[in-house]
Amino acid sequence: MTISEKLLNYGIKAPDILLPKEGIDKKKWAVVACDQYTSQPEYWESLSEEVSSDPSTLRIIYPEVYLESGDKEKIISSINEKMNEYLSSGIFTEYKDSFILVERTTESGTRYGLMVALDLDAYDYAKDSKTLIRATEGTILSRIPPRKEIRKDAPIELPHIMVLISDAEKKIIEPLVKEKNKLEKVYDTDLNKDGGHIVGYLVNSKKDKERIADGFEALYKALDPKNPLLFAMGDGNHSLATAKSCWEDIKATLTDEEKLTHPARFALVELENIFDPGLLFEPIHRVFFNINQDTFDSLLSSFCSSFKKEKVSSKEEMLKKVNEKGQHFGLNEGDNLYVYTVEGGDKAISAGTIQLVIDKMLEEKKGEVDYIHGVDVTLSLGAKKGNLGIILPDVSKENFFSDMLKDGAYPRKTFSIGHANEKRYYMEARKIK
Questions:
Q1: Taking the CB of residue 45, how many other CB atoms lie within 10 A of it?
Q2: Please, which residues have CB within 8 angstroms of residue 313's CB and are 6 or more apart in sequence?
Q3: Are 336 and 315 in contact (CB under 8 A)?
C-alpha cells in the first residue's frame, strides 16, 4: 500500500497547494475568514482601502456582511473573474502533493495547524452521522444554497475551515513542529488588522508523510470501529457542508473512475490538535428575554430528573462552581446570581440541556434568546428587567470528542475558537476544477 492509499483510508490527501509567489505582499494577500465581522461593514471597507489594487484574497471571497446585498450575482461574477485572472497571470506557485505546517502567533499565544485535503466522501453533516469527519454543531440547511452559488463555478477554493483532531499523545503535528527549522519556509508575514503573525513550512518528504500516515493509523485504531470519530469541525462547518453539497452534484455526473480523482471530491482545510495549548476554546453564553426565573425553572424541569440552585455572592464564585465536576450553569436575574446543578439530564453537557430549554421556550413562545460572547456582557444583559443571563462552563478539551459521541453534534453556538481577529486568515488555495 502506498502512502497516498494509506492516508486516503483515513480520509486524507496531500493536496496541490497554490500560494502567491515571491514579491506578492502577503500582508495584503491574507484576509480574515468571510464569516467574521458580519455586523461591521466598516471593517471590510477599511480592509478594502488597505489592500487597494494589490493581489488579495479579499477579491476572491464573499464577506458574509454583504450576503444580503442586492448585488450578489455581480459580486460572485467578479470573484470568479478575479480567480481566473489570478490563475492566468501566474501569481501562484503550486506545491504538488504537499502538506503545509502553519504557525500562527496571536495575542492568545502560538498555535500550529496542518493544511490537508479531506475526502468529502468521508464526511456527513447529519446529526447522527457515523462518518470519520463530522459537524460539531447543528448544520442549518438554509445556509447552504447561497454558499453553493458562490462555490459552484469557482475554479479554486480558499479555506477558512479548521478541523480538530484529538491527538493527546501529539504524534501528528507536534513532531513537525520540533523539526520546523529543517523545513522550507513558504511564507512568513504579519497579518493585517491585528491578526498576528503567520509562518508556513512545506511538508513534502516521504519520511514526514509516512510519519503523518502512521500517526493517523494509530489514532484510528484507538477509535470505536462502530462509531469512528476522527475529525470534528472547529470553524467553517457550513463551508465544508457547501463543499460536500457541490461534490454530490458533480459526482452524479461522473463515471466511477472519474469520481476517484476529481479535485472537487476533496476540500482544503487546516487541521489542529485540540490539545495544542495555543488553541483556546471559549464558551458562548445565552441571554433569555421576556421570561422570568420561575418559567425558566419549569421549562428546565422537563429535561432532567431534578435540579438544584444555589445563590452565590460574586461572579468569581459563580465561574468557579460552574466549572466544577458535574453538569452546572450560572444564571443571573437582576442582581441575583445562581449556580444550577442538573441531575439525570437528557444531555451530557449543560449547553445541550439549555438548548432543549431554548427549543421548548421558543416553541411555546415563552421568551426569546440571543447568543453572547463574554461573561461580563452576558451578566450585564441578564441584569436588565425581564432578562436572564445564562453562563455556560468552559468547553473541555479532554471530553470534547467523547461528549460528541454521547450527544451527537453540539448545539449551535456552543463554543468559539479564539477571538474574531484570531480566526483563520486565507493564505493557501487549491484548484477544484
A1: 11
A2: 337
A3: no
Find all residues with CB under 8 Å of 322, minimum gap 6, and list them.
328, 329, 330, 339, 391, 392, 393
Q: Are 198 and 427 in contact (CB under 8 A)?
A: yes
Q: Strand, coil or helix: what is 384? A: coil
End-to-end CA distance of the chain: 28
In one-letter notation, the amino acid at residue 341 is: T
Do residues 170 and 275 touch, judged by C-beta distance below 8 A? yes
Paired with 113 in beta bridges are 102
Contact 287, 398 (CB under 8 A): no
Q: Are 190 and 105 in contact (CB under 8 A)?
A: no
C-alpha cell at 171: 504524534
How far is Cα of residue 342 from the mean position of the Cα atoms in its chain? 29
DSSP secondary structure code for residue 218 in this structure = H
For 86-130, the pLDDT digits (tens) are: 999 999 999 999 999 999 999 989 999 999 999 999 999 988 899
**Burial of residue 37 (number of CB atoms within 10 Å: 0-12, 13-18, 19+):** buried
pTM, to two decimals: 0.86
Retrieve residue 421's grid coordinates.
481577529
Q: How confident is the model at residue 256 (pLDDT cuts 50, 70, 90)?
A: very high
Cell reading at 393: 462552563
Number of alpha helices (DSSP H) and beta strands (DSSP E) in the chain: 14, 21
- Specify the pLDDT at position 118: 98
Residues 100, 40: Cα–Cα separation, whole Å: 32
CA angle 192, 195, 200 (to 5 degrees): 90
Residues 315-357 have pLDDT tens digits of 999 999 999 999 999 999 999 999 999 999 888 889 999 999 9
Question: If you average pLDDT over every residue of the chain, what do you get?
Answer: 94
Residue ranges with strand state E in 240-373: 266-273, 281-289, 306-312, 327-333, 336-343, 368-373
**Rg of the chain over all Cα atoms, to the nearest angstrom:** 23
Q: Report the range out of 253-257, 281-285, 417-421 with the highest average pLDDT.
A: 253-257
What is the mean pLDDT of the segment spanning 192-212? 98
